[in-house]
Amino acid sequence: MTISKNIVMIPDRFGDPYIFENILSMQEEIFKEKTILDLSKVSFMEPYSMLSFLILGRNYLRKTGEKLKLSNIPIHIKQYLTRMDFFESGVFDLADTLKDFVMFKRSSASSRLLEITMIPNKERQGVEVISSVIELFRKRASMILKYWMNDSVTDYFVTVISELCQNIFEHSLDTGYIAMQTYRSGNENIARLVIADSGIGILKSFSAKSNLQYSGGADLIEMALTTPISSKREFGYGLCQVNSITERLNGTIFIRSAESSLTLLYGRKEKSSKYIFHRDGLNQFNGTQISISLSA
User: Fold this and answer.
1) Is the pLDDT of residue 233 over 50?
2) Rounded to an integer, what distance in angstroms lies between the CA atom of residue 267 and that of residue 283?
3) Which pTM was predicted?
């Protein structure tokens, strides 16, 4: 008996968190049995899209019990994903492989990135992994943060990594991932740190806090960033501290959780400027995905 396959052509929508929404809008089509994703049109993939795509694959494995099959991956994309340890997660099946001598063209010695690392949902193991990630980041900080480099910026990012990764085992009830890379997009050099999970999400995390009043998921995300609230304690300063650091660095925060997202952009036209963008009613995507970006 021949088993029919569901071949889905994936568009070139991995350039930033906003356009990755196009991929998330395809979840109903992707989450069918025997799906094969054709990535031949993908020309570029940045860290947020990469980790969100990884979580999408993990969700598919959990739902169907099968690995999500990828086909026709352009060579430079496969080289990049291999360098970032994307395939080490074990949630994807490759329809075709490349010879080692081709893969080695993507330098394994590159120090302008942090490879994908899984953050366990158990505190003891999670703390150990976070410590190792921070140690590696400090070794590579001079290259990752080449265009923004000074000791205080390195320390700021250590704090951000620690706070956001701890949230995975403290609040999400699931494992998560971290990755970071500096890359060039047009005339800009971008450093992007991404921490992502597929846990219960921010809205459910605060569901027991009946005294909080908010108009929707994006409004709650903004409250968590700007007000010392916590889903487990009387006060919580973690996300507030991350927001404060991003403001000092004139960076950008993008947070997506469940069906909502929030973007905070600092210092785009003048150093004191701040722009806030709320979005609710997005396609459901479990967990919380966070991007912290600097541009130069």
Assistant:
1) no
2) 30
3) 0.92
